[in-house]
Amino acid sequence: MVTKSTPKKTTTQSNAVKAAPAADYKQSVAKFKDSVLNHLRTTIGTSPAKASKLAWWQAVVAAANEDIFGRLTDTQETHAKNDTRAVHYLSAEFLMGRLTINNLTNLEKFDIARDALKELGLDINEVCEEEPDMALGNGGLGRLAACFMDSLATCKYPCVGYGIHYENGLFRQEIRGGKQVERPDSWREYGSPLEVCRPESIQNVPLGGYVDKQTAPDGSVSSVWHPATIIKGVPWDIPVVGYRGSSVAILRLWESRSTEQFNWDVFNAGGYVDAQAEKSLAETVSKVLYPNDSTEAGKELRLTQQYFFCACSLRDILRRYNRTHHHDYSEFAKKIVIQLNDTHPTIAIPELMRLLIDEEGLSFDAAWDIAQKSFNYTNHTLLPEALEKWPVYIFEKLLPRHLEIIYEINYHFLNDVVEKKWPGNNDIKAKLSIIEEGECRKVRMANLCVITSGKVNGVAKIHSKLVKEDLFPEYAELWPNKFCNVTNGVTPRRWLLACNPGLANIYNEVSGKDWPLNLDECEKLKKFADNKDYQDRFMKVKHDNKVVLAKTIKELVGVDVDPNAMFDVQVKRLHEYKRQHLNLLYILSLYKSLLENPDMDIPAQVFIFGAKAAPAYTLAKDIIYAINAVGDKINNDLRIKGKLKVVFLPNYRVSLAEKIIPAADISEQISTAGYEASGTSNMKFAMNGALTLGTMDGANIEIVEKAGIENNIIFGLSVEEVQSLKANGYNSWDYYNSNSELKSILDWLDTDYFTPGQPGVLSSIKRSLLDNGDPFLVLADFASYKDAHQRAQAMFKDKQRWAKAAMINSATMGIFSSDRSMHDYARDIWNLQSKNVD
């Protein structure tokens, strides 16, 4: 039944600005234009006649910074004056992307800046293309941290984000001959106008050396660390602007430098290279995101990175605290909360203990009490290999004092807690111990996090359940109230308002202008999901976004795609559990069917991939090569009449995601059930009107709860079925031998059909699924996955049915705003209150 109701007309965000007296708006445009021109001359040092687009971008940032840095100062002064309790978010990754348009949007100055530049003969989108992505993260974890910072600022929660000022972010991916090639991503080679250095807050970080015992006159014995070297941590602050400038938070990133920049004596003696050795060694610490840890040197560097940024951050936290509290730590846990984003910052726990005991003179018991009340831990994975374990011998070499503290924490835990609960049970002690015994003894960082933290949370309902029941069941038995859930979220400012202005305008009309602050307001669109006019408008926005993406695809990879086709998208880190190779097998199945019957009555489909594989992850790189090789063959095969295209977009990053996500019809979220903690791209896609084709895994479950299973395409084994199948002995060969189509597709990979003259180049994928046991059950889910695609094709042909489902998905995603996530953390974990800026 088609509803006849019509929404109350309200101004769009764009029109809201212009609804003010025209003279006021014109004056704002003129003022911003004058500011840009002034900064072009006086800050950048050039003139409009010869300025490059890079110079124009720098001038636009400088103009926006006039407002941003003023609000930042107001925010900091408010929190300092009121001695507010604050959260300190420690994360090895912050995948910030580009900030200029996001900042202007959050300041509600984007239209003003756009029109100001237009008067200068410039397109704001072209100018802002000059901004490099701040790719200081690997994927979902880092992007989540960026969304959280946006929401913390918007919701006015006192906070500081802490991370590493990587010289090179996640590598820049090039595709050569279909294969991934990694290149450095020097995002700030010539500096960045988006950040400011704070030399007054430099910290010195000790490393290596040895520990000895010293006896005081009163007979007490203390440990004294004699470090071998000192690394200087230089802070760079990146302002994070809350929506409508409600507050401006700080992301503080630490750059490593040598305490001695240059050895003149060595240089003058002719040792020109050796004179720089210490400087080069120190700067290596913040050189690269996630150095390859397959070598001993790589392991040492990665642990050094983690310690470096945690040590700098904790010293900074103590410095801020002591400005008011003057080394009285009785109030520390009341004023300071520290969130560990995964296990990467775990070393912060013994470092805080060391600072309090060795440098501030507290007893072990007092320091341990403070640590337990200050730290909380977010778990992001159930994969055992992702729960960090560091060899004890590396700790002995790099962090000998911290190892002592970890041993003492472990001793008290095993003897005071575990022994009391399970007396005489050495098996339980071995399992729960922070130290893993064996040929190479290791420190279990996740165990240390759980033992110390006041709260441990997963990031989706199903994930948190598995964390408690499967990953840490004994800890949950010890501390049942320690474990909780906070489902992830994404910021609607970047992932709808800024990246999809056409859809944002529909919501401005239907939901009012405050929906970016309360995403639940978007649910008002649901009552128009059967309205033909609104369906047409909604799908017109989608089509326009597909036109833009089609142009980008042509520019990047030279492939022509039809915006009327169904855009089926899988963009995320390349990993076997995310199962890009399951997607590939279905593409091969569809291609095979089209070769047999080119006149099949199916909608034209474009499969779009974006993914980076870890440099040492051979199979993941093989899958990228296979996608490109298969795509090259399919895209140039005239026999299938353009009904199928396959596109791999190189160097997937935030700015590319902002073009891909609004254009997607299908969101591929096909991880093996029980392996994806949450996912956040699934939320972004649904928010922008894509249907989820996925397993009941991570946040997919909660998306389906809100949008309805009838409006998405669910397939595959459940978590329980996966566990049962593995427990009863999964044999992938059974599926290969019993399904002739599956067998023919896998055998196809052994031929040279897609790699002329090179048979077997793609065989590693087949071997992983058969000889290596198919650990993520690709073959077990293949038949169900194929059926899901056939259902999607049939549904896509029913334009009104599809439009209704897309609208309902978009309208019901209010719960997946990262603002809601922050409110959950603040209420259930941090005991944190928002604070209006004076």
Give the SSE map.
Layout: H1 13-18, H2 22-42, H3 53-82, E1 86-90, E2 94-97, H4 100-106, H5 110-119, H6 124-128, E3 134-136, H7 140-154, E4 159-164, E5 172-176, E6 179-183, E7 196-197, E8 203-207, E9 210-215, E10 221-226, E11 229-241, E12 248-258, H8 264-268, H9 277-283, H10 296-325, H11 332-335, E13 336-341, H12 348-359, H13 364-374, E14 375-378, E15 389-391, H14 392-398, H15 400-421, H16 426-432, E16 435-436, E17 442-444, H17 445-452, E18 456-458, H18 461-471, H19 473-478, E19 483-485, H20 492-498, H21 501-511, H22 532-557, E20 566-571, H23 580-596, E21 605-610, H24 618-635, E22 644-648, H25 654-660, E23 666-669, H26 681-687, E24 691-694, H27 700-707, E25 713-714, H28 719-727, H29 732-738, H30 740-748, H31 763-769, H32 778-797, H33 799-811, H34 818-830
Parallel strand pairs: 1-4, 1-13, 4-12, 13-14, 14-18, 18-19, 20-21, 20-23, 21-22, 23-24, 24-25
Antiparallel strand pairs: 2-3, 5-6, 7-11, 8-11, 9-10, 11-12, 15-17, 16-17
Report on the biggest sheet. 10 strands, mixed
Computed CA radius of gyration, to the nearest angstrom: 28 Å
The number of distinct helices, counting runs of at least 4 residues, comes to 34
Mean pLDDT: 94
Shape: globular
Distance between the termini: 51 Å
Strand tally is: 25
Helix content: 40-55%
Question: Number of folding domains?
Answer: 2
Structural class: alpha/beta
Q: Can you tell me the CATH superfamily of the largest domain?
A: Glycogen Phosphorylase B
